[in-house]
Amino acid sequence: MFEFVRKHTKIMMFVMFLLIIPAFVLVGVDGYQRSSESGATVAKVASYTITQSEWDAAHKNEVDRLRASRPELDAKMMDSPEARYVTLERLVRERVMNEAVGASLLPISDARLARELQQIPAIASLKKPDGSFDKERYEQIAASQGLTTAGLEARIRQDLSLRQVESGLSGTAFATKAVADMALNAFFERREVQVVQFTPAEFAAKVQSTDADVQAYYEANSKLFQAPETADIQFLVFDLDSVKKSISVAEADVRTYYEQNIARLQSKEERRASHILISASKDMPAAEREKAKMQAQDVLDKVKAKPDSFAQLATKFSQDPGSAAKGGDLDFFSRGAMVKPFEDSAFALKKGEISSLVESDFGYHIIRVTDIKTPAAPSFESMREKLEAELKTQQAQKKFAEQAEAFTNAVYEQADSLQAAADRLKLSIQSANGVLKKPAKGAPGPLANAKLLAALFSADAVEKKHNTEAIETGPNQLVAARITKHYPTRTRPLDEVKAEVKQRLLQSRAQELAKKEGEAKLADWKKQADEGKLGATGLVSRDQAANMNQLLLDAILRADTVSLPAWVGVDLGAQGYAVARVNKVLQRTPPPQATADQERGQMSRWIASAEWDAYYEVLKNRFKVQIKVAKPLAGADAALAVTE
Q1: Are residues 128 and 175 in the same domain?
Q2: In 148-269, which ranges are E strands?
Q3: 592 preceded by cis ω (within 30°)?
Q4: Which of 35, 385, 425, 567 is paired with 588 by a 20 to 30 Å CA distance?
Q5: How far apart are CA 143 and CA 133, in angstroms?
Q6: 432 in a structural domain
Q7: CATH code of 576's domain
Q8: What is the CB neighbour count within 10 angstroms for residue 519?
Q9: Confidence of residue 315 (pLDDT cuts 50, 70, 90)
Q10: Measured between alpha carbons, how far is 610 from 183 in angstroms, rounded to an integer?
């Protein structure tokens, strides 16, 4: 059926047109919209209903956002039940907060909204040359977010109201010094310990295995010896480089481009100037600034009377410590290096001319231009190669945009081969073997793109060997691929992995012996410790772990120290078994005042977070929140949780 649709696209479009138009006439556009908005109820907040379609749309937006920012994430994990449930919980939370805003009657005045808008740089800078507000650009900013200006302002009002609700709780949370110190001192408490570790390596010589043992271990742990799903593939890359190969640029076009861009190509004009500065900051009282201006005018009169004495007068009167000792010399500079009033004056003067008083935020300047560097334009021959490359790139970008749709259509229309697309756009089909579902370390170019691999290992591409859609794998780069041979996940035969199985078996048995020995020693030492075999003492704490295994550190810090010494035994897995004796408990060394203040601030934030979570639970009860979808039983480490 789908093959028929692919091969008779135009016929099917005509049939669908005949079917759809009468339906719109009979039902109307609103009917279709209402239909799309309907669906099963997945949650309720007060009288508001969250539908399945709303949940699906919100999750799609989340996945698209995550794929854009974290392309290495597994697409299947992002669409897992756990990830979808995170999105639903977020929708519910947003709705609860909207209800709280409405119940709190927290209107945002126009003046408050205006102040908030002025704090957004993109909006605060919307000024026309005459200083008036640029309404057209403001509408463009709103439209870029899919909103009208009224919608944008409504959303900002809503955000401000939400902040008022949140700040009413989080803004009042604090941790007293006594409470913070008690909690932090306990958290950073130090313990003097002795540790003995029993490693599997110590017992490796004592373990043996037979072929029957290896066979039994292999059968019991077959999942450890699986080969991952892979595929041999073909792929087409359509990018600027492939387009450039078909482009040639005439010399006449390069010469015209050179003439049009000569001003850009040549270096900037530079000027060398000296100045005399009489300081007068912009926030200086008007009377004092006027006094500084009169002083500057007096110096200017002296300069005009004896122009050749400019350097001596600068040394004597200039209040610029960086240049006064050099006779006011500022060396060469180009446009953009000086404040604008100074720059405008310096670039308006001819060589040897002296300015009148120039006022800036620093005070009053007297400027003399001493030299001018006007760089010669580079020759056409020296710039030919660079300009030809620029023109090729410009033409390639235009041609890429024109042909991108042709590439997309070609890989879709003949779904079982890339040859048609390759012939149409003069591309070379590339191949790769043993491609994994996830980007392999060091994978070249598009084969490192998670989105392409997700499409390549989709059911349609795997089962029917169809081309993937054209995937954007980088700026100005589209890639389509297809599987030529698929290798599903399989358990490798014992003959292939026998050495690995035997190594794992021996390691496992050595671990068991290490644990058994450690537990026996722990029992003996609890009865009567052999000080000589317990090793050197050391201090450990959460901020001074001394590279200690985290499991062991946690066990030491959780040990009951009411009666000392306290003993703990910890199974470290592949690292063996450890026995630790806690001899002393020492108080934390008082931190510097700045650190203590920072820690108390963090405590306040923790308390605010806990209070906010509790308040949210109250709001959920108040607004009768019902989530009608069962929470998945799997772990909560879904991909979308990384954004919370």
Answers
A1: yes
A2: 190-198, 226-227, 230-239
A3: no
A4: 567
A5: 17
A6: yes
A7: 3.10.50
A8: 15
A9: very high
A10: 15
CATH number of the domain enclosing 368: 3.10.50.40
CA distance 575 to 475: 46
Q: 637: pLDDT confidence band, cut at 50, 70 and 90?
A: very low
Q: Token match 């292939």: residue?
A: 496
Tokens found for residue 372:
């001018």
What predicted TM-score, i.e. pTM, was given to this entire model?
0.49
Compute φ and ψ for 2, nearest 5 degrees.
Answer: -65, -30
Strand partners, 131: none
Mention every residue, 6+ apart, whose C-beta is less than 8 A from residue 309.
Answer: 302, 303
Mean pLDDT of all residues in the chain? 81
Residue 378 domain-assigned?
A: no
pLDDT in tens, 220-250: 999 999 999 999 999 999 998 888 888 888 8
> Which residues 6+ apart lie within 8 Å of 85 measured at CB?
629, 631, 632, 638
Average the pLDDT over 332-361 and give the result: 91
Alpha-carbon distance 534 to 194, whole Å? Answer: 6
Exposed / middle / buried, residue 135 (Cβ in 10 Å: 0-12, 13-18, 19+): exposed
**Could you tell me the residue range of the domain that residue 444 belongs to?**
230-249+383-488
Does residue 261 lie in a domain region?
A: no
CA distance 165 to 536: 56
Return the structure tokens found at 357: 């008083």
The sign of the dihedral angle between the CA atoms of 493, 498, 502, 503 is negative
- C-alpha to C-alpha distance for 552 and 545, rounded to whole angstroms: 10
The dihedral region occupied by 480, where left means phi > 0, alpha psi between -120 and 50, and beta the remainder, is: beta
Q: Which helix or strand (DSSP H or E) is residue 289 part of? A: helix 286-305
Contact 577, 517 (CB under 8 A): yes
Question: Both 47 and 31 in a single domain?
Answer: no
257 assigned to some structural domain: no
Same domain, 397 and 443: yes
State which amino acid sits at residue 471: I
Locate 184 and state its tokens.
Answer: 């932090």
Q: Where are the alpha helices (DSSP H) in 414-562?
A: 419-425, 450-456, 459-464, 494-527, 550-558
253/607 Cα distance (integer angstroms): 69
What mean pLDDT comes out for the span 46-53? 88
Task: Look up residue 460 and give its amino acid.
Answer: D
| Backbone φ and ψ of 80, nearest 5° | -75, 160
